[in-house]
Amino acid sequence: MQLCSVQSICVLRLSAIGDVCHAVAAVQAIQRIHPNAKITWIIGKVEAMLLNGLPGVEFVVFDKKQGKKAFKALREALKGQQFDVLLNMQVAFRAGWASRAINAKVKLGFDKARSKELHSLFINKRIEPKSQPHVLEGFMQFAQQLGVSDFTPHWQLPLSDSDHQKAAELVGDDAEPLLIISPAASKAERNWLPERYAAVANHALAKGFKVAITGGPTDMERDLSAAILSHCQGEVMNLVGKTSLKELTCVLGLATVVVAPDTGPAHMAVTQGTPVIGLYAHSNPKRTGPYPYQDYVVEVYNQAVLEQHGKPAHALPWGVRAKGQLMDRIQVDDVIAMFDKVVREHRL
Questions:
Q1: One domain, residues 173 and 139
Q2: Is 120 in the same domain as 36?
Q3: Most exposed among 33, 70, 211, 279, judged by the fewest C-beta atoms under 10 Å?
Q4: Domain shared by 231 and 325, yes or no
Q5: Which one of 92, 119, 145 terminates a domain?
Q6: Rounded to whole angstroms, how far apart are CA atoms 182 and 265?
Q7: Measured between alpha carbons, how far is residue 331 from residues 12, 53, 100, 198, 338 in Å?
Q8: How far is CA 86 from CA 12, 227, 256, 336, in A?
Q9: Under 8 Å between Cβ of 318 and 287
Q10: 140 and 182 co-located in one domain
Q11: How many domains does the chain have?
Q12: Please, which pLDDT band fits residue 2 given cuts at 50, 70 and 90?
């Protein structure tokens, strides 16, 4: 049964950057069907930095670093509010516990197969089961319950003229092709080897591309970029720590192609229509790969889960991860071949 008559909607998706990028597509699909509905989004502090100013959405920031105080602050922020529906798009227990502060007639969550961490205790309605869905497709199922029938993702992120100007100052907005390498994932084990990133950069330089490395201000990201640059044979722009999330999104939008592991900027690039070559070893690219560029993924995930579980990925619980040091299995020649394929297919 669809919830086609709604005036107030609460979205609960706290993290992470890639997932909230997927969720934006679902939220904006809902807005096209329900342009007058009030939408409130409970979101993480870092993720709010990217989405603040999203048209037609009021954000309530949940800062998990505050511990118990974060739940108290959420209750105070939502005191007296009543929603027609809560879209509980996160199965983590933290999100479920936070949902207790949200007064909604319908609390819509995931089907039983995708429910974990007691998610089922915090909802009273489920989306339909779906075989092997991408994360974005799962979020679109929430939109479907509100009457959405066109699931083609579109994004309108709140990027200002100054954000675009800063990006152009950093990388230029000329006609030269640009490769962006966003090398760091949230966990170091998901990062590719510095000398291999550099080999791809050198190949792109030889093809006439400009090359830039992007990332946040953490020590890990600075060290990784320095290691990559030490192996580069030409001029490579180092933008690590030099952009806000919105400015970084604009930089990714100016790129011709992006190379990245399973990390937020890969999905930020997708929102700007930039082709992404994803490097995947630990998570299933059919579930979390850059949408709709899963065909451009270079992966060793399927072989790894077959070795570790004795079954192919499609015969295992959806979303199972491979473990261990696996990224070194991804070979330079395969990534370069994919780079050449993307350049050829997009006539870059």
A1: no
A2: yes
A3: 33
A4: yes
A5: 145
A6: 7
A7: 39, 41, 47, 13, 11
A8: 7, 45, 38, 45
A9: yes
A10: no
A11: 2
A12: low
Beta strand 257-261 with 57-62 is unpaired
The answer, yes or no, to whether the previous bond of 16 is cis (omega within 30 of 0) is yes
Q: Average the pLDDT over 48-67 and give the result.
A: 97
Distance (Å, rounded) from C-alpha 81 to C-alpha 78?
6
Range 257-267 average pLDDT: 98
* Rounded-to-integer distance, Cα 99 and Cα 80, Å: 15
**Is there a single domain that holds both residue 129 and residue 246?**
no
Nearest to 34 by CA among 81, 83, 88, 98: 83
Average pLDDT over residues 58-80: 97
Q: Is residue 154 included in any domain, yes or no?
A: no
Asked if the peptide bond before residue 292 counts as cis, ω within 30 degrees of 0, the response is yes
Tokens read off for 305: 């889960």
d(CA 258, CA 228): 16
For the segment 13-18, the average pLDDT, to the nearest whole number, is: 97
Tell me which residue has tokens 């999104």. Answer: 249
Distance CA 34, CA 7 (A): 8
Residues 111 and 176 in one domain: no
The one-letter code for the residue type at 89 is: M
Neighbours of 309 (CB within 10 A): 14
Domain containing residue 21: CATH number: 3.40.50.2000
Query: Tokens 């092709």 — which residue?
Result: 177
Which amino acid appears at position 303 of this protein?
A: Q
Do the domain assignments include residue 2?
A: no
pLDDT band of residue 3 (cuts 50, 70, 90) is confident
CA distances from 123 to 6, 53, 120 (A): 18, 29, 6
Report the run of H or E that residue 248 belongs to, with start and end.
Answer: helix 245-254
Q: Does residue 155 lie within any of the structural domains?
A: no
Residue 97 in any domain: the answer is yes
Q: By residue range, what is the domain housing residue 119?
A: 8-145
